[in-house]
Amino acid sequence: MPLTIEELATFCKKKGIVFPTAEIYNSLSGFFDYGPLGVEIKNNIKKSWWNTFVHQRDDVVGIDGAIITNPKVWKASGHVDNFEDILVEDTKTQERFRADHLVEDALKIEAHGLKAEDLWKLIQQNNLKSPKGNPLSPPKQFNLMFNTNIGPIQSDTSRAYMRPETAQSIFINFKLVQESSRLKLPFGIAQIGKAFRNEISPRDFLFRSREFEQMELEFFVDPKDKTLSSQTSKHKQDKIKFQFLSREEQAKKSPKIEQVTADDIVKQKKLSPLHGYWLVEAFQWYTNLGINPKNLRIREHTKDELSHYSGATFDIEYNFPFGWKEIHGSADRGTFDLTQHEKIANTKLRVFNEETKEHILPGVIEPSWGVDRALLAFLFEAYDNDQKRGNIVLKLHQKLVPMQIGIFPLVKNKPELLKKAEDVFQSLRTAFTTQWDESGSVGRRYARADEQGIPVCCTVDFESLDDNCVTLRHRDTTKQIRVPIKQLHEIIFKILHGEQFEKLGKVVSS
Ligand code: GAP
Description:
Layout lengths: L4 H11 L2 E3 L11 E3 L1 H20 L4 E4 L8 H5 L2 H4 L1 E6 L6 E3 H9 L8 H10 L14 E4 L3 E3 L9 E3 L5 H14 L6 E10 L14 E11 L8 H5 L7 E4 L1 H4 L7 E3 L1 H6 L5 H16 L7 E5 L11 E9 L2 E12 L1 H10 L5 E3 L4 E3 L2 E8 H12 E4 L4 E4 L10 E5 L5 H14 L5 E3 L5 H11 L3 E5 L3 H4 L1 E6 L5 E5 L3 H9 L9 E3 L2
Parallel strand pairs: 3-9, 11-13, 21-22, 21-23
Antiparallel strand pairs: 1-2, 4-5, 4-6, 7-8, 9-10, 10-18, 11-12, 13-14, 14-15, 15-18, 16-17, 19-20, 23-24, 24-25, 25-26
The protein binds glycyl-adenosine-5'-phosphate.
């Protein structure tokens, strides 16, 4: 039986990965707190992303912008006027629901992106009611931005917004970053940070929440030349094949999934080579961290669902138990945002193009990842309810694990053995994330470590006092090897970098 989202949420709470916020006050819908294990996994996701897309590249720099900024930014970006979902109201209880979700749940069809009049037609034709069985109001637009007030007096002029996307911090700082870092087109600016959306119906645990984190990259380019530059082509872009759901197929009764490369869809003029490049980079980031490509597909946005700023958008979707859902959005924003900010701020945001010797307003390709949705996908992929062992094994990629090593003294009533284990622990923790566990049987401790995703456990036993060796146990295979303490750092480093476990020590029976 596949794991449900509710079961995963229960597991996350039990293991200290994610809690509903303020549970002692009955929680708050759409908000979550990360626990001791969750914060480690989440930090590792962000670390891996920053390393891949900032540190390992010479054409991308990072920033960290304010969550609340001048409200004119959101007028210019179009979010004040266009960042809306469609809601319907229960006419008796006044409860509000996202109209497309209500239609999807009742009719089992894809309704995302449908216009208000089409949703209303479906509601009327099928005589749909609210979950409490009451008639529904006609659909209304609802702006998703959270408002707040700045300063002690609340008025229309004190209104500000919690940012609904991190991208705008990049656009408004674009010129300062470009000048201070002396960047030449094409180049990218990356950012990781919180975003807030007053979702009408938050659901599916972390998937649709009201406070979440994004990892966004705005890649600035001459809008007339979106081919690969010397810098982008320098990065590896293999002829990776992925599952693809085109706009045309989505219009059919039984849409066909194709196996394509980015080049194939570039040839169909669905996107530019540079946009294709970024889609593949994003796809590979997930697969390099352990997501099976079979559980990923790329879906082209239909015309109706394109955001107000986008000329072409492709989502990377993950095969969740509640359906294929977006975990990444990749948009060609063209010059929309910089044009708007030039106009509303009455400023110039042009860059000198060395090749054409003109000042130009760059176009933008935007790959955007959600941290929380990535974590959800990684957890689904890693969760293995191992019937033979009788416990769950969280087979997270080594780069994402909350702890790298578990140290177990075999017994806790023999001071020399404890001292030896303590020495190993103190030495290892200088280089690795390390957890001490001395309670219960070793089998129980292995099971606990499996559920936390700890890839290597190290047991210090009676023999260790004589032979100065310890037993290492591998999470995924349960295989065990005996290794000298003085080589532990090197051996653990090799295990964590994927070297074959059994070749790194003397295999012992488990
Ligand atoms: N700057 C573009 C942008 O914000 P988006 O598709 O609305 O585009 C990008 O959001 C990513 O942010 C999504 O792919 C998703 O991973 C994450 N995201 C969006 N809304 C979310 C929500 N309510 N809860 C959790 N993650 C969300």
